[in-house]
Design goal:
The chain has a six-stranded mixed sheet. It has one domain (2-7, 17-91): Beta Polymerase, domain 2, CATH 3.30.460.10. A hairpin with a 3-residue loop joins strand 4 and strand 5. It has helices at 24-40, 71-77, 79-82, and strands at 2-5, 15-20, 47-51, 56-60, 64-69, 87-91. The protein has three helices and six strands, in the order ββαβββααβ. By secondary structure, the chain is of the alpha+beta class.
Length: 93
Amino acid sequence: MLLLDIRKVASFADYFVIATAINNRQMRALVELVNTELREEDIKPSHREGGVDSGWVLVDYGAIILHIFSPELRDYYDLEELWQDATEVVRIQ
């Protein structure tokens, strides 16, 4: 999991959360967990793209955008490289 502060390089959000799910079941569980936890704080997603079966899910919470990838698609899209000018806040391996 990686948390990037993108405020200095983008105007559409403040943070990217980039995570890897090793299978569809884990991806679904991660999306549901984040939605449940944020809903309890009255934070609801404004937009969602992708799907568990596609190997990539994006959930837009306004200031925070959550990306969950399969390992292959995370390597392919390489958001860490694309957003290399962003500030890394937290990285959990």
